[in-house]
Amino acid sequence: MAIAKSSILTGLSVVFAVAAVLLVAQNWAGEMSVMFLAKSWGPYPQGLVLLKLFALGALAGLCLYWNSRTQYNREIKHFELRREKAEVKAEASTDQVRVLESKIQTLEKALEQALSSGSTTKKDRS
């Protein structure tokens, strides 16, 4: 699903880029003034203004992409750390089980020895 979404967005960005280039090429001859902060700038060729707007839009798109990619990488690192912690906990739990099993075996052997030595001492007394 993510691959299809990515390829659709890539296709749309190519279509918009081609449309912007065509728009710039068709409107290069006309002139226009640009109003910004209550001041008139110009006259500039319309194509140049459109080209600058396209460049600003592309820059904004790259910033958004970089931000989302950075967030994605952070999430991946977070999930990897959680997985590693879970593996360490499981390993520690397994080690604890092994230690307890060896203690149980030691205690069973000691009990068997105590019972066997206790039965021989009873036979010796009688």
Task: Summarize the model shown.
It contains 2 helices and 2 strands; from the N terminus they run H-E-E-H.
Describe the structure.
- The chain is mainly alpha-helical and 126 residues long.
- 83% of the residues lie in helices and 10% in strands.
- The chain has helices at residues 2-26, 46-125; strands spanning 31-36, 39-45.
- The chain has 2 helices and 2 strands, in the order αββα.
- The N and C termini lie far apart (84 Å).
How many DSSP-defined strands?
2
Shape: rod-shaped
Unreliable stretches: none
Mean of the pLDDT scores?
82
| Main beta sheet strand tally, sense and closure | 2 strands, antiparallel
Helix content: over 70%
Query: Given the structure, what is the number of helices?
Result: 2
If you compute it from the alpha carbons, what radius of gyration comes out, rounded to the nearest whole angstrom? Answer: 38 Å
Order of helices and strands: HEEH
Structural class: mainly alpha
Distance N to C terminus? 84 Å
Could you tell me the strand content as a percent range?
5-15%
Read across the widest sheet, the strand sequence of neighbours is 1-2
Task: Supply the key terms.
126 residues, mainly alpha, two-stranded antiparallel sheet, 2 strands, rod-shaped
Any chance you could write out the topology, listing elements then pairs?
Elements: H1 2-26, E1 31-36, E2 39-45, H2 46-125
Antiparallel strand pairs: 1-2
Helix pairs in contact: 1-2
